[in-house]
Each structure stands twice: as structure tokens, then as C-alpha cells.
Description:
Elements: H1 7-49, H2 56-62, H3 67-74, H4 77-100, H5 106-118, H6 127-140, H7 142-167, H8 175-192, H9 199-210
Helix pairs in contact: 1-2, 1-4, 1-6, 2-3, 3-4, 4-5, 4-7, 5-9, 6-7, 7-8, 8-9
Amino acid sequence: MPATVPSAFRTLTEIHGDRYVLEVTSQQRRRAETRTRLLDAAADLFATRGIDGSSIDAIAEAADRTSGAVYDHFGGKEGLLFAVLERWLDDVAVVIDAEVSTATTLDEVLAALWRNVASPPPGRERWIALEHELWSWAARHASASEHLARRYRAAWSELEGAASRWEGAEPVPGSGAAVVGVLLGLAMMRRVDPAAVDDGLAVAVLRSALIPRTVLR
């Protein structure tokens, strides 16, 4: 018969096991908190000071963490920049997807897209400054440019697919990229002068960019 493990020994083993699990969980929680704090601090500084003007030390200080934490989690400033971009795009996609799921026409899809870019929900207002800062950085750094383009390609493809699903129209290749370019430009004009671009005009211009044969009325 196999030897019986003393109950006291089993109890000690279970206790140590519980402590190990608790320690691992606590470490994971601290790492997740550190990552979030660094991402929030980086997004704020990138949007207000620019990427070039935001040092790793400044980001770490704003997050109440060490510069070593930035390297540990992201490998450096560009890795942190990519992570900020990923989180922003994912957050925006969730919100837009939720609105688009209830749309019944292409214009409603474009209106939802426009609302979330031109008039983002409270707490997301900094996104437009950050977006232009990311674009400017990517234009000067090849690795960032490819990373940004890779994420945008999915959005371009989805927009072109929307025209086929909602209108039965065949969009011109590249029209998805045109829509995103027009969208950001219109949003910039709205920020400069809120009266410059009303919602109806924005949707009409976006539709025209997606389906060039559309005639504006």
C-alpha cells in the first residue's frame, strides 16, 4: 500500500501553495496597474508635449513609476507609443462597433464614425491631438509608419466593405483610406472652428469619399 502522507504535511503544502498563488496574483495585479499608469501618462504627455518632447523619465515620473518600468513593460519609448496606439484604436473600435451594430443605412454608419471622431465621449477628447502626433511621428520613422499603416489597413478594408454591405456599391480601391483622411481633416477643421463643418455636411463628404460616384446635394 502507498505510504500515507501526513495530514500536517499536506496542510503545510496547501498553505505554501495558497501563498504562492496569492503572491503571483498580487504581482500580476501590480504589473497590470503599472502598465495602465504608464499608458495613461504617455498618452497625456504625447498629446500635450508631443512624442519628441516626452522623455521616458518624464513619463515614468508622471506615472509615479521608474524609468526602468518603461523598459521592462515596453522596451522603450517607441514600444510604449505602439501600445498607446493599440489601446486607443481598440477602445475606439469597441465604441464604434457598438453603434454601427444598430445602424440600418450607410449614412448611419458614417454618422457614428463621425460622432466618435469629431465629438468623442468625455474623457477621450485628447485623442485627436494624439492621433495627429502619432501620424507626424510615423511620417518620420519607418517602423512606426508600418505599424500605424498595418492597423489602419483593417479600418480601410472595413469601410470599403461597408459600402458593399449597405449600398450594394463597389467602392473604388483606396476609398477606405480616403475616408479616414477626410475624416481626420474634417475633425481638425471642427476643432479649429466648431461651426465650420456641420454633421450633415461631414456625412455627405465621407459618403462621397467612400463612393466617389455619389453626387453631393
